[in-house]
Amino acid sequence: MTWLITGGTGYIGAHVARSMTEAGERVVVLDDVSSGFPDRLPGGVDLVRGSAYDRELLDRTFAEHGVTGVVHLAARKKVGESVERPLLYYRDNVGGLTTLLEAVVAAGIGSFLFSSSAAVYGVPSVEVIAEDTPTAPINPYGETKLAGEWLVRAVGRAHGVSTACLRYFNAAGAARPELSDVGVSNVIPMVFDRITRGEAPRIFGADYPTQDGTCVRDYVHVADIADAHLAVARRLASPGHGGDLTLNVGRGEGVSVRELIDLIAEVSGRRVEPVVEARRPGDSARAVASVGLIAEELGWTASRGVREMVESAWEGWLLHHPEARGA
Length: 327
What we know:
Strand order of the largest sheet: 3-2-1-4-5-7-12
Strand content: 15-25%
CATH superfamily of the largest domain: NAD(P)-binding Rossmann-like Domain
Helix content: 40-55%
Order of helices and strands: EHEEHEHHEEHEEHEEEHEEHEEHH
Radius of gyration: 19 Å
Oligomer: single chain
Number of helices: 10
Number of domains: 2
């Protein structure tokens, strides 16, 4: 098999590329590098620079590299931006996916793995979210991921493509410091940024019906997410697989925001009392994945804990923000 990974220089994509190549899979990355870093890629991986939605480039890349399967991670993913610019998100995340799938079908590629998100569930009323929990996204980003799932499954059924949609929860940590999340849109680097600048971490709402009043979330190590992609890709490529898979990727365990901030303070040695602000619209009290199906289908479970996520993320933060060492 030769796998094309779109968005492979990004935070999650680079981990997927590394996991697959270290396991012996042949990988080609297609990325415009607008938000990624080519030096994240392991040696031996060809990087094709350009849009994953450029049909001519896709056709040429599939043919020149003998691509037999696609792992599609390239997408716009900022929730707030999606609210402000829904046309952009639908054009790129859904319209672009349409172009990619057209090229997949034309090339006769038999395996397609779609990077989805727990955002498709919206704000469910259940404490543990299973794959059959009703999907009701509350922002355009989540809507585009759900529409993408529908499209992927429909194309798979119509054209005999084995497909999988992975709904992963809150990615965190890094397999290596140089692969860490350099943005500040996710909660752990957001807290790192605040404490580095001597500011108090923020908690949005402390009156939820949880053990300490703060939101509870399922955090999963990005290296575990990458390993899940590898396991699913191999299932799709196995003889006689067919059909489609829709799977949660998480730990099945919840951690509250206050617990997470306390752990960050312990790991970093920067104990700054958080400030409590008003709830954010759309935040649910608890969002934890049911992970029984992926274990049953693939024998896969997450193996890394929250402390390892925070420790590895902090090591990466110090690499990219040396000023934090003396903060």
